[in-house]
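Support case: user asked for a sample of complex input and structure output to validate their parser. Sending the pair below.
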Amino acid sequence: MKMLTFFVVFPLLSAFLTVLFAGKAKGLGNALSILTPFVLLVLSLYCASLVHLHKAVVYKVGGWMPPLGICMVADGLSSFMLATVNLVSLLAMVYALSYMRTYTQKWGFQALFMLMLAGMNGVILSGDLFNLYVCLELASVSGYILVAFGVEPADLEASFKYAVMGAVASIFILLGIGILYSYTSTLNMADMAFVLSGKPAGVLVGFVSVLFLAGFGLKAALVPFHAWLPDAHSCAPTPVSAVLSGVFIKTLGIYALVRVFFNILGASGNLLTVLMVLGILSMVVGAFLAIAQTDIKRMFAYSSISQVGYIIFALGIGTPFAILGGLFHLFNHALFKSLLFLDAGIIEYSTGERSLNKLGGLNRFIPSAGYTSLIGAMSISGIPPLGGFWSKLIIILAAIGSGHTGFALVAVLVSIITLAYYLKFQTFAFFGKSPFAPGQIRMPSFSMKLAVVMLAGVCLFTGLLLIPRFSFFLQGAVDSVLAGNGYKDLIFGALK
Amino acid sequence: MSLYFLCFVLFCVGLYCILRKRNIIKIIIGLAIIEYAVNLFLILIGYRMHGRAPILAGDQQILNMVDPLPQAMVLTTIVIGLSLTAVLVALAIRIYEKYGTFDITKIRRLRG
């Protein structure tokens, strides 16, 4: 299905055209940056329906048959991630239309963002381990540049730290790929799964697992490797923070981790236990460090670490119910975290302040940011009809169901702490007395308000993904994770 | 076998450089050393005993060649490393303009 290549080719083409005609055609960058994610979002929904029919869609690049050639694969998990990534990128670019007016070189930003989108789509659709690494690097390097985009001293320092740590992580991943190649003499994911299932379990696969855990764990900001995230996400320009925290750490970190661990290496009991423990650690550390913050964006960044901990914890439990909860929480978190970051951007744009000590009573002036962030905060804390409640409930029930009641209790406590610091954010930022006079507030423009209102609208209804009519979206993703080594049969079947 | 061990030693040298050096430029050089070590490891994986270069000429048979796939991987990795080094050096130049120093212990405005 040649359509799969469009996900990588369209953003690359947009980036190229934007840079080529930068100065001459004024509106080209704006038009391409909105059009591309929108077209890709429609294509990803079409791809999801195709995958629901055929179980996997495979495209052989150049017509060469794998394992000689590279293939691009869309199965349940891939189409699920594609829809998430393109939806959040579209709304972030709508927001960036007017937000980036305060920065220079808007066309440069749009080109880099398109490159990052191409890299993320490439990671999701790659059927070949080295292709995954190349697209991961494409997205990562664009990410390093985008974090440093507003060249304040703090931004440069954050980006340098992020770049060095991210580069070391990528080197670990490359080392793991090299060792796996020498062990199985193939780079194709399905073929590698086939060869690995035939060989006896040994020390080598364990060593490679540790390398991948370190590499992808740093990209996903799991706890021993999280130190780059608060600086990078709080110093990046707001649309970039939203996409970084919302989809980037999930695509490059969690999706790649799941693909390699569950489908290629075969998730053994020890590995799942390690994932569970790291998940719990991330949850707790992220939550405790978030309460102490007064800078809004830093608080949200630590909250991201905590929520990613939930997702990894759910994946580590390993039962079908838990994986459903984890993937649903991934989708929810992508939506409400990007919503919260975009709202923080509106606060910063309007008042020039980011510290909770200096804000107050903003509901009077920017009700759009106030009410949408209320929806986002309620969803992330797990208040009933909103989506976050259902995903957290499923994760906690799955933990109790598989016997880890202690961990489930910790998850509930962390949820209460999450509620506490989001309540703190809402009270200090939007309610109460305002230190601002009406003339001091700069009104957010239409595109910014449109982006947050649309995101809030989608957030309200994510709970509907669980009803049987729409549950195929999530269930397809869960099935492809659970297939484990059966991934190879799926791909070989689709290739004939 | 000793070749793989020396590769690992090179990797550790680069890692030491990244962790312990205070100058930003030295950290970037340490990253380059790590990249060289991993590229070397990848090429060593493809080596076959008494193998010759994997070039297919018209009349020769395909026996006893070294594996060409890691060489293709390394070419791609070298280019990726180049772009990463370019980004890091550009960041280092800008950091010098803003902070006035290359010393990483003095570039600490972000805390908590």
